[in-house]
Amino acid sequence: MASHRDGAPEPSDAVATSQQEHQERFPDPGLPHHPPRLTDVDPHRAKKAERQVAWLFGLSILGSLLFFVGFFAVRVDGDIYDVLNPDPTSQLRLQNFLLGLGVTFAMFGIGIGIVHWARTLMPDHEMVEMRHEVSSEADRADAQEIVETVLDESGIKRRPLIRNTLIGAIILAPLSFITLFRELGPIDTRVLSHTMWDEGIRLVRDPSGTPIRAADVTLGSTYHVLPENLLGISHQDGYLEEKAKAVVLLMRLKPEELNVSPDRADWNYDGIIAYSKVCTHVGCPIALYEQRTHHLLCPCHQSTFDAANECAVIFGPAAHPLPQLPITVDSEGYLIARSDFHEPVGPAYWERGRQKEEMASEA
User: Fold this and answer.
1) Rounded to 10 degrees, what is the CA torsion of 102, 107, 111, 116?
2) How many CB atoms lie within 10 A of CB 57?
3) φ and ψ at 343, to 5 degrees?
4) 3-class SS of residue 323
């Protein structure tokens, strides 16, 4: 490169600089060529694609109906289909199969139907529009006009078959999830305030129903426990519902390792403690006990409770300790309950504080 006598390089046409008056400009290539689809030029193809989309939305509707059949018609307690399928385990498998298959078809039909609709029938021309703030009445009117144009171009107004099946699928599909959410807990939360436990009720092993002697509970051992009066309830009378509320974990620690509040001084017997097995997060069953640390772990979301410290939450999303069941022994040395739980069992909810106060006032 040539340079001046003072060492500065001479300008060259090979390198573009900002001082150049004429800069090279690239022409706007415009939008690429847009080949028409078969559905754009062939009415029969368009009608076939419309029927395919409607069939997919119809599949979603059938999936939702299949979910409701599995949820409401197939009973696990043996009330229905006793002759055809008397095994409750088989009924449970059938119900789970129908629920899963129904939700799959409901979501698959809507998703694939919308994708197929967009790829074959909705306008696919590329457009460039300037963004601007919607502020004035005129701008809002323009925005409304754009929405109406989109509806017109999508064909939803002039394709009633697609419109009607889509409406049906959109209405039914969310109902399956609402139904599942409804089963997460009772609408009337007061049912969680009382269980089958009461003063003098023996603690029995689940599922054998054998009473538990305090002398047989060794250090580090864990028992899954039910109230003895639950054994006389049939499935038709709500056995599973009552068991879900009353199930308890029983364990024995060294008395000096327990951190006991003054008002709970007589809730344990010689280091034997009992806590609700239902996690206070979303109600999963707690079944993992770590003997060395005295930690109880919920397998669903890893909420961890300290059994030596009145099952206080030390990790995870749970917001409340596990409710403790006051226990003692009877004249024969069997473990019995002193009373029911003093607070609601199960997941935390917005009325939990009020329910706890009502239970304390009743006691």
Assistant:
1) 10
2) 25
3) -150, 160
4) coil
Entry pTM: 0.57
Nearest to 289 by CA among 301, 271, 275, 268: 275
Amino acid 177 reads F
* Pairwise CA distance, residues 283 & 186, whole Å: 12
Do residues 84 and 147 lie in contact, with contact meaning Cβ atoms separated by under 8 Å? no
Question: Which residue numbers in the chain have pLDDT < 70?
Answer: 1-25, 75-89, 127-136, 147, 150-157, 181-189, 349-363
Tokens of 305: 């409770």
Q: Tell me how far apart the alpha carbons of residues 81 and 68 are, in angstroms, rounded to a whole number.
A: 16
Which residue shows structure tokens 């639950």? 230
Rounded to 5, what percent of the chain is helix, strand, coil? 40, 15, 45
Residue 65 CB coordination number (10 Å): 15
Burial of residue 88 (number of CB atoms within 10 Å: 0-12, 13-18, 19+): middle
pLDDT value of position 90: 78
Identify residue 53 by its one-letter amino acid code: V
**Residue-level length of the chain:** 363
